[in-house]
Design brief:
Helix content: 25-40%
Largest sheet: none
Radius of gyration: 30 Å
Shape: elongated
Length: about 150
């Protein structure tokens, strides 16, 4: 007779990190629901400890509340883009094969012709900078507006 599989349902992280009380034995399926539930244990939280060992070194007068986060706002339109600024927001976009090949060709040509080691991400960021700056300067006469008027004729 084959050995019955052990269920891990309801054991959470204990199956990975161990359980101080020992393994939980489940009753066979025929006996489930007939036995009373075991008493629950009350768990008390450990004493508060600093989140970082460096917080203890801060003088008491410097322990003011810190901002937990800020509301995301867009930069003012007049600020120029900087390709050297470290990007922090991840996005994913889909390209046609022709667009993807053109991006790879541009990257390769810049490296071979001008010895510029630009990444695809840098090239796309640069293109975005140019597109937005053109729209900010020319508005309705910008390249993006002209292309979208062709795509979505009135």
């Amino acid at each position: 007779m084959p050995k019955q599989r052990v269920s891990i349902k309801g054991k959470g992280a204990d199956i990975f990190f161990g359980d101080e009380a020992g393994p939980v034995e489940e009753a066979p399926i025929e006996q489930r629901g007939s036995a009373p539930l075991p008493p629950t244990e009350t768990v008390t939280a450990p004493a508060a400890q600093p989140a970082s060992p460096f917080q203890e070194d801060r003088p008491e007068e410097n322990k003011e509340p810190r901002k937990q986060g800020t509301q995301e706002t867009s930069p003012p339109a007049a600020l120029p883009f900087d390709i050297n600024e470290t990007p922090v927001k991840k996005e994913t976009y889909v390209f046609t094969l022709t667009e993807a090949f053109a991006l790879e060709d541009l990257k390769r040509d810049l490296r071979r012709t001008f010895d510029l080691k630009a990444s695809k991400q840098d090239l796309l960021r640069c293109a975005l900078h140019i597109l937005v700056e053109d729209y900010q300067k020319r508005g309705g006469d910008s390249h993006v507006v002209k292309r979208f008027k062709k795509k979505f004729p009135a």
